[in-house]
Write a structure and sequence with these properties.
By secondary structure, the chain is of the alpha/beta class. The chain has 7 helices and 7 strands; from the N terminus they run ααααβαβββαβαββ. It has a single domain, classed as Rossmann fold (3-Layer(aba) Sandwich). The longest helix is centred in the first third of the chain and has 16 residues.
Length: 227
């Protein structure tokens, strides 16, 4: 089992300031001491994923991703993973089409328009949609938990490929993130590595690293993004 309740929280995790993991360590220790189970820790998932990120950034996975720096992250949310990667000296540019704004709880007007998963910004997140990927073909494209059934990830990959990008890192649960088009596109490229993350119980998220096969240059046609 690779869920966080079984994680040993090694000393190596202290190489960076990682408040998410610190909070989880205290929570796991408290639940273990009280004899609690997976259901007890899952009560805290919504709160902590909103504050930090969907996937838990442990040192092993962070080092693996940082190895492929420089990076461009599309759909970076509040920038928490970007912050952790930068803590390992990775060169990363992060963007989101609705970046968070600390000044207001709902900075973009209404529930349907805001980045409603995150309430603070951990790293400078630029305002940009999937077209931003085409501006950075010399960086590794990072897509972490793209929204379920949303074409953003597939569109970002198309733009990145059209600009000559060569490397993709995807983080997430394939059953709960991205759309069918994105996952079909991934399968046409060369999978270099796939590792299970130390996850919240019952969450099957992985990191997948792909070498992208070159495509003929052509202007990508985006699928519309759902609101």
């Amino acid at each position: 089992m690779h869920d966080i309740m079984s994680y040993r929280f090694p000393e190596a995790d202290r190489r960076i300031n990682n408040p998410y993991l610190i909070e989880l360590r205290h929570l796991v220790e408290r639940i273990r001491e009280s004899g609690g189970d997976d259901n007890e820790i899952l009560k805290h998932r919504a709160e902590l994923t909103a504050r930090y990120a969907f996937s838990v950034p442990t040192i092993g996975i962070l080092e693996l991703v940082a190895f492929h720096s420089p990076l461009v992250e599309i759909g970076a949310g509040n920038g928490y993973w970007a912050r952790c990667l930068a803590g390992l000296d990775a060169d990363i540019v992060a963007c989101d089409r609705l970046p968070p704004d600390d000044a207001l709880p709902w900075p973009h007007g209404g529930w349907d328009e805001m980045n409603y998963w995150f309430d603070s910004e951990w790293y400078p997140v630029q305002n940009g949609d999937e077209r931003f990927a085409a501006l950075h073909p010399n960086r590794t494209l990072l897509l972490s938990w793209p929204l379920l059934d949303d074409p953003m990830a597939a569109n970002a990959l198309r733009h990145y490929l059209s600009a000559g990008g060569t490397r993709l890192i995807y983080i997430g649960d394939p059953a709960s993130s991205g759309d069918a088009g994105f996952h079909a596109m991934k399968k046409t490229h060369t999978l270099l590595a796939r590792h299970k993350l130390w996850s919240w119980p019952k969450i099957e998220d992985y990191v997948e690293i792909y070498a992208l096969n070159p495509r003929p240059a052509a202007a990508p046609t985006d699928r519309p993004i759902s609101s």
